[in-house]
Amino acid sequence: MIGQRLRIARAASGLSLRALESKIGNRVTAQAIGKYERNESMPGSGVLIALANALGVSVDYLVGDQEMVLEAVDFRKKALTSKREESQVEAKVLDLLERYLMVEELLQLRSVEWHSPREAPYPVVRDVSEADRAARGLRDHWGLGSDPIPNLVELLEEQGIKVLAVELNNIDGLMARVRRAGKGTVPVIVVNRTHRGERQRLTLAHELGHLVMDVAARVDEEKAAYRFGGAFLMPAEAMWAAIGKHRTSVGWEELFGLKRLFGASVQAVTYRCKDLGIFNETLYRRLFNEFTHRGWRAPPYQEPHAMDGEQPMRFERLTFRAVAERAISEPKAAELLGMSVHELNQRMEEPPAIESETLARG
User: Fold this and answer.
1) 41, 42, 323, 340: most buried by Cβ count inside 10 Å?
2) Is-cis flag, bond preceding 123, omega within 30?
3) Are the C-beta atoms of residues 199 and 114 closer than 8 Å to each other?
4) CATH fold label, 1-64
């Protein structure tokens, strides 16, 4: 039955039952659409196609895994302004995730289940500073040591956390768990595709903190997640090796060198140095006053030496692999990736143009 998916897609489009009736050319009444949403009846194939076209979704989405439910959603920084926006994000996440899981299962990959640390959720965090312990524990569990993480998206996806880059209007990112009947829960982190790379990486690490920490009620969960994010990206041992344990001054070149090393904004670097006691309160405030004066703390957060975003590419790679291994047809793969069969073949068979490579290096 299609009730849940139809209801989400209609809410995402902002259409009332009567407006949707009109948009499908009055093929069925608003009352009939209401019955579909309540799973009291099922539309015929012609009506189903008309509904999908009117709502801008695929038929496969409407008839997909009805037991896949988005739960424990945590929107970071700003609440969405309307139920419509919530539904739009939910529809995007469910649609993308369903395609992703389908390809993984066809290839029989173990990464379809997430590599949850035995200790997670980490023992109740009763103080924000204890988030450092949780970040260090997760790094140890994944065998990362204290080295900088070159590609955070790749790391999370190899550990079974699904990362989706979606254009979001009012939020930096979100963490959710997707429950599937008879199968394990899938953790999902959604990051704003339009943000700069350094901002995306902090969002990813922050949401990872929400996923693995159990924070006491009296502790500010957002502050704890930020502390976890900074500690996961910039371990204390690596920071001390790079900048020392106590500093009373720092230059711009050194700050931006740390940005390049750890893949974090100079604001995140400065905050981490304050947390570790490397920068005293005077130096910390002086730097943040300068960041404010230069406009780096306000939208669009145009800090120098912006990093490229870490776009999730694993789903695309796995889809190409599924085609090569004949686990999926070319038309189906093209549909999953949202491209034509011609473009799919072109991407698989032709190397990138030299001009594109040159531009990318520049």
Assistant:
1) 323
2) no
3) no
4) 434 Repressor (Amino-terminal Domain) (1.10.260)
142-177 pLDDT, tens digit each = 999 999 999 999 999 888 899 988 887 777 888 888
pLDDT at residue 79 is higher than 60:
no
Indicate whether this model's pTM tops 0.85: no
Q: What angle do CA 229, 183, 44 make, to 5 degrees?
A: 110
Specify whether the CB–CB gap between 169 and 78 falls below 8 A: no
Location of structure tokens 């189903």 = 48
Please, which residues bridge with residue 175 across strands?
A: 74, 189
Q: How far is CA 341 from the centre of its chain?
A: 27
Measure Cα distances from 65 to 46, 90, 242 in Å.
21, 14, 49
Please report, as a single letter, which amino acid is at residue 277.
G
**Digit-coded pLDDT (tens) for 178-199:** 777 667 778 889 898 999 999 9
Omega before residue 43 within 30° of 0, cis? no
Structure tokens at 198: 């350094």
Residue 51 to residue 41: CA distance in whole angstroms: 15
